[in-house]
Specification:
Layout lengths: L1 E8 L5 H9 L5 E8 L5 H8 L3 E5 L7 H14 L4 E5 L1 H14 L3 E6 L4 H5 L4 H10 L2 E4 L2 H9 L8 E3 L6 H10 L1 H7 L9 E5 L8 H11 L7 E5 L6 H8 L7 E4 L5 H5 L4 E4 L11 H8 L4 E3 L5 H4 L7 E2 L5 H13 L1 H15 L6 H13 L1
Parallel strand pairs: 1-2, 1-4, 2-3, 4-5, 5-6, 6-7, 8-9, 8-11, 9-10, 11-12, 12-13
Length: 372
């Protein structure tokens, strides 16, 4: 049995990590989880119900980092951890330093971001480079991330494994259907608004909302009952988004901070849009696979995982980066063409569920990293 410790920061709820933990082969591994959170979360409750060993370290700001490193080091030595796997920024820095100090030979982190620090937070790049140095293995969640690590951060290719996010599609389907009526009533999707245009994205510059929102506004002349749904509403670009929404009637848009039953929400979208501003700005794009899996006709830019599997006119409408006009044209094409809607939905489902993004495939690839 291999003693593995996942170190995770700032997560309240994550289907992706829950599926990872649920499908792990416990005939091979004993799993421990260290959480860096200021309070108990739904994710922690999930772990405890699964009888996973959980150690929560109260963490609220960078001033807690030195103490966290000391506590994690002590825990790793006490539990005789052989493999450490870190997720997200604070956990990666604290976890890798602690693991190195504790003498853990296999130190892994999953790189969940692409160029956000390089492009927006240059003072944080040194922490990415520190993580790259301390890790014995780095999991890149797409080829885009691998290329950034090699070409822009100088990481040796032999250190990197590309492992795509894994999805439990059966679980997604059950959740989508079981909460569909609840979500329909909660957000009044029975009011006849059409089309419903969905976006699942934090409010950040690189997500391209500054092109999506004006494109939506422009179709209101032809479709005055259209509705824009912005989910995960919040982030450093919030003021700019508020300005962009100012000229759109309140009845034509909905802001959703967080929706636990996100898979049911997709069922009410007639079109889904994800439009990062250039090829390397998105590390993966979970929402792209989710929308495809739920059968929503989609408009994408070729960023993150879409760069690898998106095919214009086949499983999505691919548009140029930073192009309000092409997003608008893509919206009108989909809305007006029922055959195109069916084609994009059908091929999108096949793309998502082809096996490449199945949770069992992800676990198989993780095993290779843990055991080598």
């Amino acid at each position: 049995m291999i003693n593995i410790c996942y170190i995770i920061s700032g997560i309240a709820k994550s289907f992706s990590l829950e599926w990872n933990i649920e499908y792990l082969d416990y005939s091979k591994y004993t799993l421990h989880v260290v959480l860096m959170n200021s309070e108990n979360t739904e994710f922690e409750d999930f772990l405890r119900k699964k009888n996973i060993s959980v150690y929560r370290i109260p963490y609220s700001s960078k001033s807690d980092l030195p103490g966290s490193i000391f506590k994690i080091k002590k825990y790793l030595k006490k539990e005789r951890i052989e493999v450490v796997h870190c997720h997200l920024f604070e956990a990666t820095i604290a976890g890798l330093i602690a693991a190195r100090l504790a003498g853990v030979k296999k130190r892994i982190y999953t790189r969940h971001n692409s160029t956000i620090n390089l492009d927006y937070y240059p003072n944080a790049v040194k922490y990415d480079k520190l993580a790259n140095y301390l890790a014995t293995d780095i999991i890149a969640i797409s080829k885009v991330v691998k290329d950034v690590l090699i070409n822009r951060e100088g990481v040796a290719e032999k250190k990197i494994s590309v492992i795509y996010h894994g999805f439990d599609f059966d679980a997604m389907d059950k959740l989508a259907e079981s909460h569909k009526q609840e979500i329909g009533e909660k957000y009044d999707f029975v009011n006849g608004k059409y089309p419903v245009v969905g976006v699942v994205s934090r409010f950040m510059h690189y997500k391209g909302l500054q092109y999506i929102i004006p494109a939506f506004q422009s179709i209101l002349n032809d479709y005055p009952n259209a509705r824009l749904v912005l989910c995960n509403a919040g982030g450093p670009y919030s003021k700019q988004v508020e300005e962009l929404l100012r000229d759109i009637p309140n009845d034509n848009y909905t802001l959703i901070d967080f929706e636990r039953n996100i898979f049911s929400l997709y069922k009410f979208f007639n079109v889904f849009i994800h439009a990062p501003v250039y090829a390397e700005s998105e590390a993966f794009g979970l929402s792209c696979i989710e929308a495809w899996a739920m059968g929503v006709p989609a408009i994408y830019t070729g960023s993150g995982i879409v760069k690898e599997v998106g095919k214009d006119g086949h499983n999505c409408i691919l548009v140029d980066f930073k192009s309000q006009e092409m997003i608008e044209n893509g919206l009108l094409r989909i809305i007006k063409d029922a055959d195109l809607q069916k084609k994009l939905a059908y091929n999108g489902i096949n793309t998502a569920r082809s096996g490449m993004f199945n949770i069992t495939e992800m676990i198989k690839e993780l095993d290779k990293v843990y055991e080598r």
